[in-house]
Amino acid sequence: MYRWLLDFYHGYLVVMVQGKRLEEFLNRAVAKGIYLWGIRRPAPGRLLFRVRGKDFSLLRSSFRRCGCRGKILHRSGLPFILRRLLRNKGRWLGLAFFIAAVQVLASFVWVVGVAVEDGELPGHPQIRDELREIGVRPGVLRGRIEKDYERILEELAIAFPEAAWIDVKLRGVVVLVTMVGKTPPPAREEGPADIVAAKEGLVSEVIVLEGTPLVKAGDMVSRGDLLILGEKVLPRREGGFISQPVRAEGIVKARVWYERKIEEPLEIWRPVRGNRETVVFSLRWRDRVFPFYRRGRISGKVLWERHTKSVCRGRNQMNLVEVIKDIYSEVSWMKVRISPEEALVRARREAASEFSFLLPETAAIKNRREEWEISGDFLVYRLVVETLEDIAQTAAFTREKQEHGQSRDQNRERTPGDGDRQAVCI
Amino acid sequence: MANTATNGRRRKKRYKTLLVNLFGLPREVLLDLPRLVMLGNSRMVVENHKGLLEYTEETVRIKTAHNGEIRITGRGLNLLYMVKEELGLAGRFLRIEWPGGEE
Fold this sequence. Notes:
The complex is a heterodimer of chains A (426) and B (103). Chain A has ten helices and 22 strands. With 426 residues, chain A is an alpha+beta fold.
């Protein structure tokens, strides 16, 4: 390969020599220090060989002395290619014109793209009109966009106040304007409301932001119990107190217990690998996989194994090119009895999986207790987890219910500590 | 006169052989012998040759020092390259002979 590259770089000739004293000719040429290669005898009295372009002139005296006639059959290599190219001036002019045309055309913007994401923003035609007015339109010089980049962004921000983020990208002859609309925060619910218990638990801490607490640390509450009443007691100028309906807010931390019972069988069906298998070799380049060899063919349920070998790791060690070997083995099912230890591991794994869905993200696990026993062909596993979490849940205001059920007096006065929790509207 | 020259050459060669044997020097350099490197029966490199005597597809005769000769017979013989000190040969070699003997 190296030799071929060198010969191509220097340029070589394929020469045919006709005559009787061909061996003598070769000896004379070699004696002059000329390198000859690819020497063949296609017919008696004829010799074909290759020689560097610059050495051919040195052969002329040898031709004469040996009474041979030499003829160049073919010129090959870089110097000859360049010479051929340089000879044709029209081609070079065309190439220069083409490069100049590409350069000139590439200095203009030809496409303006608009991408709108999320939020409530005006339609594309309206944005395009605005862009045209600002000066971002097909046919404008790229340099002008680059120069006025800050101004374009500012004017767009003024023209579209509903946009949270605006970006203008210049990629070749394309200007891409991306807009992201403002997403308003979720509407805050208004109106009076109570806070009730979302779960059963033992209250450990009550932080009231708004409303009247009805429980204290140490109280045991059930699901749906009223924790913070949606009313506020205010003193009256003329004496006494009145209650005002409010939207109760607060944190009620409680100890909550979760229990899970899992029955894990000691006899299970386990897949066993058979003798038949299919092997598939593939080549992965970035995200695309090209299978190139397959041996064997099986169908149905299979066991899949994958082995990979990196061919080219790429500049950032991303395994750009990989050879992948996939082995699909035939599967047969066999009933096996597993040990209690293995069953316990499986039960624990299942319990952990269930608890990952059951426990809220904010819950802090304070204690966990597990017990198990073997009952017949099953291992019975029980897991109790104690957490500390906020059980406060906003619920519909109870005033109307209380009004209908207990009192219709709209302006009844009350004093604190009388044990009566009926709401009084002003 | 010719006899004296021949005797002188023989004596010189004897001294050279003695030197080679005594100091373990490369024989092909001191005694001007051809060196053949073969790759199976399809490739051959001949070093220290003195030129070609005959080149056809069936026979290649190579001149060596002291009017020696190597005759290679085979099928489809082909000269891969040739420089002053070395030549490469390809083809199917059937026989290699030294008609005049060597050393």
